Amino acid sequence: MAKKCLIISDEWLAPSLALKLKLEGHDVAVALKRPCNILKGTIKRIPYADRLEYAKDCDLIVYEDKSNNNESSELRKSGKSVIGGDKLSDNLELKRAWANKIAKLAGLKVPEMIEVDSFEMIRQIIEQRGGKWVLKQCGKIDEIKGLNFVAKMPNSEDILDFLSIMEKNWIDGVKKDFVLQEKIEGYEMAVGSYWNGKEFMKDKDGDEVCEENWEHKSLMSGNFGESTGEMYTVLKYEKALNSKLFKETLDKCRDILKHTDFRGDFDVNTIVTEKGAYFLENTPRMGVPATSGQLEIHKSSWYDFFKAMADGKQDPNFNYDPDYCIVSWLYTKPFPFVNSHKMTQLYESQKPTTMDEICETISFKMSNSEDIVVNFTKDFTKEDWLHIHPDGLRFKDGKLKIANPDGYILTASMMGKTPEEAGEKLEKLFDKIKVPKSFYRNDFGKSNYHKAKDDLIKWGYILPESEKLTVFKKEKRERTRKQVRAKLKKLI
User: Fold this and answer.
1) How far apart are CA 227 and CA 147, in angstroms?
2) Distance separating alpha carbons of residues 242 and 307, to the nearest angstrom
3) Non-local CB neighbours of 54 within 8 Å, separated by 6+ positions
């Protein structure tokens, strides 16, 4: 029987999830705070202002982004089945320094982190302390990815040079909301799992399941260029009892999660070293493009999985492919530059007169990706369609077109016994998709996973199949649950 589902989001993080629920036979609608054209005409739209009224008749409500200041939690208290968190879970992502303290309290290794609110303060700390630092934006400016800066010079001289550019271009009145984080030398690796309010979701064998992943944010192959939202991700589902990273992170976060009113995907990003994994940040929401990768991995009903999780239960039929997955964005210009309707209106309101102005205006307009047609070669098959996620597309005038002006086309995913096999399949798939000036990172066989693999095996973070299921046994916590909760209350 078709169920009524509503997805609520500031910006649509996982359009393909809505499409998947619709293909399962359910009545799916979306309420977006920031309107967009993605899947317009395919997925029903609800005015954002009407979301709570519409939710009253829904069987499942999914907050795939933030909780809207406890809105999702309040809906859950009214008896609705809701995926989402509360203000506390939001703060675990947005308030970096506070989240760092919470992680340390839970027993995770954490790098030193200092809250800063001026460029002069950043400059003074680096000049006095020396060493390598990472500059990260927080709060309302967290979405501005170009502000993040990882030092490569011995005493962060490159951050100091970058500060002069930031000061010159900063907008008056915007809070300088940053943290300086001690740079830990190691390998970036994350682990996530779905939380139902009591425990992490279990597979059909009754074992908790986690997702280990390696992100690739740099624009160009080899990790060169600007840091983007994400270019591609290597990910794999694993039984939690076989994951050393799960044991060092998520397993210690249970008391924190029980203290929040959260249901959904909770991810912890770390730097893994020989001494252990160091906490970097939390992501208590749907990941991008990780959710598209999970759509490839899951082999059972998403509605049943979400419904059980929202209600604090387990899905006895939850099943997944245990192989490696690679999920990658396919982009075109102007990505990573942001082209928007507001900027287009600005250009149109100022009629160009000189040749220089005409060239600049035409160049800008031609960088708008909206309505570019996506074509496929003749050998593109029905099977190929199963690996395509239209996260930046819409059907219009009988054709598949890019929905927005930002250059996001689609995500695609492939599975393999090894990341190399998944990557080879993905490259063959992308070869069948024809979009003007499109691009993706083609270093799937030389990924962050590959660079870290030998050390991760040596340190126990990647296990041979023969060693799984028997390595980790339950250990007594260093501190009792009462002690952790008492300290949590002081920080919250």
Assistant:
1) 9
2) 27
3) 6, 29, 31, 46
Query: Based on C-alpha coordinates, what's the Rg of the chain?
Result: 23
CATH of the domain spanning 329-439, picked from 3.30.460, 1.10.3470, 2.40.300, 3.90.600: 3.90.600
* % of the chain residues with pLDDT over 90: 81
Residue indicated by tokens 């979701």: 201
- 98, 90 contact by CB (below 8 A): no
Say what the pLDDT of residue 227 is: 87
- Sign for the CA dihedral angle at 303, 306, 312, 317 comes to positive
Task: Give the total residue count for the chain.
Answer: 492
CA distance 216 to 374: 25
- The domain spans of the chain are 4-85, 112-182, 189-325+453-467, 329-439
Query: What CA–CA distance (Å, rounded) separates 151 from 111?
Result: 15
Q: If you search the block for the tokens 């083609």, which residue do you land on?
A: 442
The closest of 127, 74, 59, 299 to 203, measured between CA atoms, is 299
What pTM does this model have?
Answer: 0.91
Least confident among 103-112, 170-179, 417-426: 170-179
Q: What CA–CA distances, in Å, run from 148 to 116, 209, 218, 272?
A: 14, 32, 12, 20
Cα gap 437→333, rounded to integer Å? 7
C-alpha 91: how far from chain center: 16
Listing from the earlier edge strand, what are the strands of the sheet with 388-389?
276-284, 264-273, 187-195, 209-220, 224-239, 324-331, 408-416, 388-389
Angle at 330 between CA 329 and CA 332, to 5 degrees: 130
Tell me which of 61-70, 99-108, 152-161, 283-292 is least confident: 61-70
Average pLDDT over residues 174-202: 96
What's domain 112-182's architecture? 2-Layer Sandwich (3.30)
The CATH superfamily holding the domain 189-325+453-467 is ATP-grasp fold, B domain (3.30.470.20)
Residue 469 has pLDDT above 80, yes or no: no
Q: Which CATH superfamily hosts domain 4-85?
A: NAD(P)-binding Rossmann-like Domain (3.40.50.720)
CA–CA–CA angle 243, 245, 249 (5° rounding): 125
Q: What are phi and psi of 295, to 5 degrees?
A: -60, -30
Q: Kindly report, residue by residue over 48-86, the tens digit of the pLDDT.
A: 999 999 999 999 999 999 888 899 999 999 999 999 999
Task: Give the SS3 label for residue 455.
Answer: helix
The DSSP 8-state label assigned to residue 223 in this structure reads T
* Per-residue pLDDT tens digits for 308-327: 999 999 999 999 999 999 99
Residue 274, CA distances (Å) to 271, 280, 473 in order: 10, 16, 21
Residue 128 pLDDT greater than 80, yes or no: yes
